[in-house]
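Page 37, continued from 36.
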């Protein structure tokens, strides 16, 4: 049976979301879209070039302007492997840049995935998902795109009609984790910042960083958008965190 085509979901007047895939084996993070009058800022690039092309087509179908900038919430593959398809400047925290330079130097291919999984079987879920994500394009032209611009603590990007604020929050999932605020829209993109470390790095008993998640609750924001969950309104997010 063919899979139903997903579509952009409108969160607020200027904020849209390409939703995450509900099957965790796909490891497909959502992609945020912040629409300025002069172009869109993307929160993460997608887990593959093929996915990036689908989202780019959906932007046009929704009457949105083309992408102007990509912001990485962190360096993990399901957030950055589509970047080569966008062909626009990328902004990220300096620790994300450092990690991606190391990732870009690896010889990504099916053979490499197999060899690394044999070396550490805990990589199998992630590396199997990478293989499936890249099936449409293959590896010959694939490249990881490190950011063009980095920051340390905070950064602001102004689009025509909307301002976007980036804040480094770190955490156990990825040292470079960044949240993306859209104050005028009351939307906060959380990335994966409060999630446990990746499976192959996770110690027994590791769980979500609830203290970090609670620290980001703010009455000024109505929408909280994680990369692998549906958007939550403020009251729902507060209740989920025991607030």
């Amino acid at each position: 049976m063919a899979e139903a085509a997903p579509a952009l979901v409108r969160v607020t007047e200027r904020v849209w979301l390409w939703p995450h895939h509900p099957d965790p084996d796909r490891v497909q993070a959502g992609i945020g879209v912040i629409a300025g009058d002069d172009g869109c800022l993307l929160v993460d690039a997608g887990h593959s070039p093929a996915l990036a092309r689908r989202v780019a087509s959906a932007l046009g179908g929704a009457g949105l302007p083309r992408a102007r900038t990509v912001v990485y919430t962190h360096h993990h593959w399901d957030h950055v492997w589509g970047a080569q398809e966008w062909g626009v400047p990328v902004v990220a925290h300096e620790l994300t840049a450092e990690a991606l330079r190391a990732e870009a130097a690896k010889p990504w291919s099916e053979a490499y995935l197999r060899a690394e999984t044999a070396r550490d079987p805990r990589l199998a879920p992630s590396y199997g998902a990478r293989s499936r994500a890249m099936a449409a394009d293959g590896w010959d032209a694939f490249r990881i795109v490190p950011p063009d611009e980095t920051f340390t603590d905070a950064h602001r990007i102004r689009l025509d009609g909307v301002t976007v604020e980036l804040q480094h929050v770190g955490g156990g999932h990825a040292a470079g984790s960044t949240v993306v605020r859209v104050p005028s829209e009351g939307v906060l993109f959380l990335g994966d910042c409060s999630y446990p470390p990746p499976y192959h790095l996770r110690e027994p008993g590791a769980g979500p960083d609830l203290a970090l998640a609670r620290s980001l609750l703010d009455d000024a924001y109505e929408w909280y958008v994680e990369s692998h969950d549906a958007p939550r309104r403020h009251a729902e997010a507060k209740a989920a965190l025991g607030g």
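Helices lie at 49-61, 77-80, 83-86, 94-104, 110-119, 124-133, 210-215, 234-240. Flag for discussion at group meeting. The first helix runs from residue 49 to 61.
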